[in-house]
Amino acid sequence: MCGILAYFGTKVRKERFANALDLMNHRGPDYTGIKSYKNVIFGHKRLSIIDLSPSSNQPFDLDDYSLIFNGEIYNYIELKKEHNIQTITDSDTEVLLRMYIKYGADSLQYLNGMFSFIIYNKITQDVFVARDRLGIKPLYIYEKNNELIYSSEIASILDIYDSDFDEFGLRQYRKLRMTLKGYTIYKDIKQFPAGSYSINSKITKYWDINPERSDDPSDEKLDFLLRDSVSLRKRSDVPVGTYLSGGLDSTILTYMLRPDHTWTVGFPEMNEFGWTDIADRLLSSRHHKTLVNKEEFLAAADWMIKKRKEPLSVPNEILIYLMTKEVKKENTVVLSGEGADELFWGYDRIFKWAKSQESIQVSDFDKKYCYGSNLDNEVIDFALEGLPGENPLEKIAYFFQIYHLHGLLRRVDNSTMLCSVEARVPFVDHRLIEMMIGASFDWKMGDSFKEPLKRLYQNLIPEEIINREKIGFPVPLESVFASKVDKKNSPMDAWLEYNINLIKY
């Protein structure tokens, strides 16, 4: 929805703050708001989606409070009714602030959405910060020398204060193609933890999952929650489309939403266009195919990495970006299928392995999951340390639902917001995750991957899609980086080093 930037301190002038905020113009081209309080500057870049009127611009002030907010509260209409909230705007922004004024930190339990936000009490000078349960919306922190910065993007922080690289963060990226547990590749910049809030910098976790629950959900409840999740996420005062890869997840979402426009992307020699044609044949939407060549791919990669000041997770992040540039011509909101593989164990190879193990061996996890071919057991130990669960299957389920998914969510947020488009992820509704996390292996996987989805929606979507074998999001890395691939370096190694070199040098 937007970009937020907040500074707490006395050293940064408003002009410098404004320049840093402008680096996030792509996150909110519709309005720029900056307000100063005592030793506080709040900045907001607005992408207008719900209540397009100026009355919902931010920073949003109400009584003694000021709010900057990135994201959407999908159930804001229900919250108004259930909690007798009277508003002067039609926005979820005002509902969010009034819920906080009424309930404080407990308001988070009522929210269904994706969000990172900061609320400042102008009288007490208390600061409340919160991030959604799964970390769909980003929030970064810089805290040093009695100064504190919160930002939707790393680049805006680095425009105010530089930071050295964090070598352990870089090692995580080289091995896992992402950083975990609050790390970034910079020493002085951390990620605000998902499912957490802070009051005056004291962080409290308000949500987590329990992988040990053992009762299976019903088909009826699963169907209701998924349809309700899609219904909530189509709330918008601007047009909503869907990505349509021709895979099971995106096809189900598209058939539920029935949008006017659907979107896919690929290379001339490597794409899923045949599958998207099958998925599209019973729809009345206009289906758009974006073709990308290797030169366009590398040019976009170079620009994205330098713009963001951090590495990209996977190569298909670039394809999502190039596709979303086309999406923006028709849609400002798009539904995406992230989260389904984590919910329904679509990575069947690694989940079948986990089920067969008595314990998780670092070397085995390296072979089954890790991306960089370099040996780094310390990074893998760090990733696996403290995973809840009674057995390897439960621990791996938690890892994928919390850590692996977080990397994918950063990917889709970064690549879409660069185009001023908001991606919404119905499979990441916390109600679905709470219901599915402890379901049994047999119920989730059945005779094939994602058996519950295939069973439920066999009469909704084309039979060919139901029976299609699972494949990844194809990128011809070996040919793109042909000159950098040899016996020592795999295509993925070449990709990871390409990202790091562009940032460091």
Structure description:
The structure is a single chain. With 505 residues, the protein is of the alpha+beta class. Helix content is 39%, strand content 18%. It has 21 helices and 17 strands. The strands form 3 sheets. A 6-stranded antiparallel β-sheet has the order 2-3-1-9-8-10, covered by helices on one side. Strands 4-5-6-7-11-12 form a 6-stranded antiparallel β-sheet, with helices on one face. It starts with a strand and ends with a helix.
Characteristics:
505 residues, alpha+beta, six-stranded antiparallel beta sheet, 21 helices, globular
Instruction: Report mean pLDDT, rounded to a whole number.
Output: 94
Question: How many separate helices?
Answer: 21
| Fraction in helix | 25-40%
Main β-sheet, spatial strand arrangement: 2-3-1-9-8-10
Strand content: 15-25%
Produce a short descriptive summary.
The chain is α+β, with helices and mostly antiparallel strands and 505 residues long. It has 21 helices and 17 strands.
SSE diagram, text form:
Elements: E1 2-8, H1 14-22, E2 31-37, E3 40-46, E4 60-62, E5 65-73, H2 76-82, H3 92-103, E6 113-121, E7 127-131, E8 140-144, E9 147-151, H4 154-160, H5 167-176, E10 189-191, E11 196-199, E12 202-205, H6 219-233, E13 240-243, H7 248-257, E14 261-266, H8 273-280, E15 286-291, H9 294-308, H10 316-327, E16 333-335, H11 340-344, H12 348-355, H13 362-368, H14 377-384, H15 392-417, E17 422-424, H16 430-436, H17 441-445, H18 451-456, H19 463-466, H20 477-480, H21 491-504
Parallel strand pairs: 13-14, 13-16, 14-15, 16-17
Antiparallel strand pairs: 1-3, 1-9, 2-3, 4-5, 5-6, 6-7, 7-11, 8-9, 8-10, 11-12
Helix pairs in contact: 1-4, 2-3, 9-10, 10-15, 12-15
